[in-house]
Amino acid sequence: MILQVDGVVFRYGSVAVLDGVGFTVAPGEFLAVLGNNGAGKSTLLKCINRILQPHDGAVLLGEHDVRRLKGGELARCIGYVPQRTESTRMTVYDTILLGRRPHIEWDAGRRDYEVTERVIDQLGLDDIALRYIDELSGGELQKTVIARALAQEPRVLLLDEPTSSLDLRNQLDVLQTVRRVTSEGGVAVVAVMHDLNLALRFADTFCFLLDGGVHACGGPEVVTPDVVSSVYGVSVSVTSFHDVTLVVPL
Amino acid sequence: MVMGLILATVCMAAYAVQAGSVDLSVGEVLRTLFGLAEGTGRIIIWNVRVPRVLTAIVAGVGLSIAGAVMQSVLRNPLASPFTLGISQGAAFGAALAIIGFGAGATGSAAVDAVQVFNAWSVTGFAFAGAMIATLTIVAFAKYRGVTPQTMVLAGVALGSLFSAGTVLLQYFAEDTKVAAVVFWTFGDLGRASWRDLTIMALVTVVGALYFLWCRWDYNALEAGSESAQGLGVKVDRVRLVGMFVASLVTASIVAFLGIIGFIGLVGPHLVRRVVGNDYRFLLPASAGAGALLLLASDTLARTLVSPVVLPVGAITSFLGAPLFLYLLVGRRSTI
Q: Which residue of A has its CA nearest to B216?
């Protein structure tokens, strides 16, 4: 199911944060949304997920307009991992099972437990499945929350700065896991990211937001010194090191 | 855990029916409960003790689950009918009925001599007071945005407004009426007749079913409102309806019995420390803890300095507060 964002406009008061943003993401594709603080990256994710109602434009999931889907239907199609998650006294297992809520009528059934266990297995969370999430490390919590979103069995996964509070090892670990699971399952990923080098490493396509619009969008070839310096106002050099493309501020 | 609480409640209920100022043997109690006995024992048990015990269970369950839900939808561990001005609203309503409309007065200083001339108008006014407080908060939240902060702050403001109103009424009232108001606010499980009990039980059961139906939504709210929206929860609606139903359950109990503090706050927290914050388990466990705590408190209130019946609200706090503090110190995790 292709995710198509078409001319989305969103205003806070009279200030247009998003002014005609559009792109498409194919199944299994990983799109990194990049841009300055306040460029509207998080707002864009919330518009896709209908947490915020766009003032104009449309978000299409395959044939369906997101605005016409009911809350439950939408949550069966789109998984969302917000920037901040509150932890509480609930086990990892129950937290991930909560991802089945859009599929549950009165109580969790056999399939809900099966999906939960499969996701736990995919993300390697077996060892901590019975721990309380308010006792986890940042990396473990982030993986648990991503697992909850995957348990929704979504076609599209929205990640808002999935690695912002993680150490280097966990940054790589979390993104590798997401990449693997979503490629295998054909899930489209839209991830807001700050670290250009991490984005270059894991994303297929890149979307730079500037002044409410899309400044550049495409494969790794759009990550050029010109684009980066006009978006972030920093002059950079793009080089290759051990076959890894790197953006180095000058 | 939940089974244990239910078992403990049943045992406590059995003891509570047997214990009291009139000595009845265990055999007599059992014979009466199974409809085999005659005489005063039968009257005491069926008209006084059984309704009282059942009232304690229903009110304990109702107040405790309402408290648990308020704590969830308001994202605030301190949320309870007191924080939101619901109890104060009920007290103001009762005061207005007693003082303003002459629905009751005390004959002498002795508590037992209080006469509420028109129980239905006091109950009705108390219920109206509590619901006015609730509806104001809900309307305010609808208008101003449904955030937990707005609702808690509006509740606190309403609470002091109603308290001030009660104080003013009392200041200008006759002594006997002031005493009647004060007595009403003590809270007393013995006020409920079988009919009152049926009404409370119905409201509590309907409320409990609604809360259970929403248990996944309350769990989702624990992860923050954005995560909950991502899981397809209509956050604003769950908050407003949850608040309303919790208040309705509280109001119908408080209106009949007077103010019984602390159960709504402590009942859920007692079990939160053991079962965690998963509402699938927390709701039944809170119900059990609330019923057990209120029943134990009431039995203690009746038997401690028998035949005087102490105000149950005070005993709840005497029992609950040290237990709560102990749990707070004993386990290091946060609420």
A: A101
CB contact under 8 Å between B223 and A102, yes or no, is no
Contact between A41 and A57 under an 8 Å Cβ cutoff? The reply is no
Stretches in chain B below the pLDDT threshold 50: 106-113, 334-335
Q: What is the ipTM of this complex?
A: 0.80
Assess B58–A contact: CB distance below 8 Å, yes or no. no
CATH number at residue B88: 1.10.3470.10
Q: Nearest CA of chain B to the CA of A94: how many Å? A: 8
Record: contact B230-A80, CB cut-off 8 A: yes
Nearest chain A residue (CA) to B212: A106
Q: Is B271 within a domain? A: yes
- Give CATH superfamily name and number for A3-249: P-loop containing nucleotide triphosphate hydrolases (3.40.50.300)
Structural domain boundaries of chain A?
3-249
Residue B335 lies inside a defined structural domain of this protein:
no
DSSP assignment of A119-142: HHHHTT-GGGTTSBGGGS-HHHHH
User: How many angstroms separate the CA atoms of B211 and B194, rounded?
Assistant: 25
Interface contact flag, B217 A101, Cβ < 8 Å: yes
Least confident of A25-29, A179-183, B19-23, B207-211: B19-23
CB B285 within 8 A of CB B2: yes
Q: Which residues have CB under 8 Å from A50's CB, separation 6+?
A: A59, A66, A67, A69, A74
Largest Cα–Cα separation, chain B = 63
Question: Number of A:B CB contacts under 8 A?
Answer: 84
What confidence tier does A1 reach under pLDDT thresholds 50, 70, 90?
low
Q: In chain B, what residues touch A74 (CB-CB under 8 Å)?
A: 232
Structural domain for B324, as ranges: 2-330
- Cβ separation B224–A86 shorter than 8 A: yes
Q: Hunting for tokens 């509006």 — which residue is that? A: B154
- The Cα of B320 is separated from the nearest Cα of chain A by a number of Å equal to 22
CB contact under 8 A, B231 and A98: yes
Contacts of A79 in chain B (CB under 8 A): 230
C-beta of residue A108 within 8 angstroms of C-beta of residue B278: no
Q: Is A213 helix (H, G, I), strand (E, B) or coil?
A: strand
Give the total number of structural domains in chain B: 1
For residue range A96-151, list pLDDT tens digits in order: 888 888 877 787 778 888 888 888 888 888 888 888 888 888 888 888 888 888 88
Interface test with A, best of B216, B233, B269 (most A CBs within 10 A): B216
Give the one of A75, A86, A104 whose C-beta lies nearest to B230's C-beta: A75
Q: Using the beta-carbon criterion (under 8 Å), do B230 and A101 form an inter-chain contact?
A: no
In this predicted structure, what is the pLDDT of residue B210?
92
C-alpha to C-alpha distances, A34 to A7, A213, A215, B44, nearest whole angstrom? 18, 12, 10, 76
Q: Does B272 touch chain A (CB under 8 A)?
A: yes
Write the pLDDT tens digit of every residue in A185-234.
Answer: 888 899 998 888 888 888 889 988 888 888 888 888 888 888 888 888 88
Distance of CA A110 to the CA centre of its chain: 28
3-state secondary structure of A160: strand
pLDDT at B234: 83
